[in-house]
Automatic annotation (TrEMBL):
<dbReference type="InterPro" id="IPR000683">
    <property type="entry name" value="Gfo/Idh/MocA-like_OxRdtase_N"/>
</dbReference>
<dbReference type="Pfam" id="PF22725">
    <property type="entry name" value="GFO_IDH_MocA_C3"/>
</dbReference>
<feature type="domain" description="GFO/IDH/MocA-like oxidoreductase">
    <location>
        <begin position="157"/>
        <end position="240"/>
    </location>
</feature>
<dbReference type="InterPro" id="IPR055170">
    <property type="entry name" value="GFO_IDH_MocA-like_dom"/>
</dbReference>
<dbReference type="Pfam" id="PF01408">
    <property type="entry name" value="GFO_IDH_MocA"/>
</dbReference>
<feature type="domain" description="Gfo/Idh/MocA-like oxidoreductase N-terminal">
    <location>
        <begin position="23"/>
        <end position="117"/>
    </location>
</feature>
<dbReference type="InterPro" id="IPR052515">
    <property type="entry name" value="Gfo/Idh/MocA_Oxidoreductase"/>
</dbReference>
<dbReference type="InterPro" id="IPR036291">
    <property type="entry name" value="NAD(P)-bd_dom_sf"/>
</dbReference>
<dbReference type="GO" id="GO:0000166">
    <property type="term" value="F:nucleotide binding"/>
</dbReference>
<protein>
    <submittedName>
        <fullName>Putative dehydrogenase</fullName>
    </submittedName>
</protein>
Amino acid sequence: MRVALLEVSHWHVPLYLNALEAPGIQVVAVSDAEHVKGEAIAARFGSRLYSSAYELLEREEVDFAFVFGRHSEMPSLAEAVIARNVPFALEKPCGINMSQVTRLRELTEEANLYCAVPLIFRMSELLSSLEDAEGRLPSDFNYMSFRFVVGPPSRYEAAGAGWALDPVYSGGGSTINVATHFIDLFRLLTGKEVARVSAIMNARTHRGAVEDYSLLTMQTEDGVIGLVETGYSFPSTADEQREFSFTLASDRMYAKSGPDRIEVRDRNNLSAGTRSRRLQLETDIYYPLFVKRVLTECRTGARPIASLRDAELMMQVMDAAYASARQGGELQTLRPLSK
């Protein structure tokens, strides 16, 4: 399979590369308008390097494209890929507002073209552990909360992606960059759409142009609550990069995170005490699995593990979160999206 990598000076790209060295995959072309990582990645794979993704698509014959880039430029890059009828994976959040993602979803559906989005918690040990504990997914959770606080904004500058700190190009800070995963996970675990959203945000830690702390709440129509806390304020080092913790409650069980584990209490069997299971909470390991999965799905004609429809519904919540924050946390009511 002939693969192209578009706009590789994105901090997630290094997590994809080992998986792309597998037999049967040939990375034939790389683009990098930022001129940061492209040369080294092209040399690694013996690929042709372009400073323009659009020139790459005009000149190269490829079977699949992995599309990265600035959030603001993702829609135009994806449209160029769709116009050439190339199946692809598009880094989240796929744009800076829902309307952009809606257009991409409509274009891929009209073209009957494969597109996957790396909402990687769909592949996580956390998801499988919750399914084992609850007995089924989706299930009747009553509430859930997630805290995912990553390192300082300087890490994006160090990675050659300083644009992530400019809302014109990124759309925002930790909310649009990190909360994406947990909005999607809330939908996946409950099997329900979000009906109401509120959020408050600030930039008090680093005092930059994008928020470095965010507290987002979601409610379903029947009252299930999801809380997502994100930030750029963890004092990270190579051996400890972030804080990730969670709590979920249903009529059947109560689950919470521990150090590298999930701890579960069964409401109907309290004499069993707290059951503990080791859990891989380092999320970077799921990107190579995503590469393998999407290329297999594309080859076999399977549906993507996460689609542009999933990204569209996630971005509806995202738009509402930023609207709420601008209004001091005012509750936003979401209209159901047409199928």
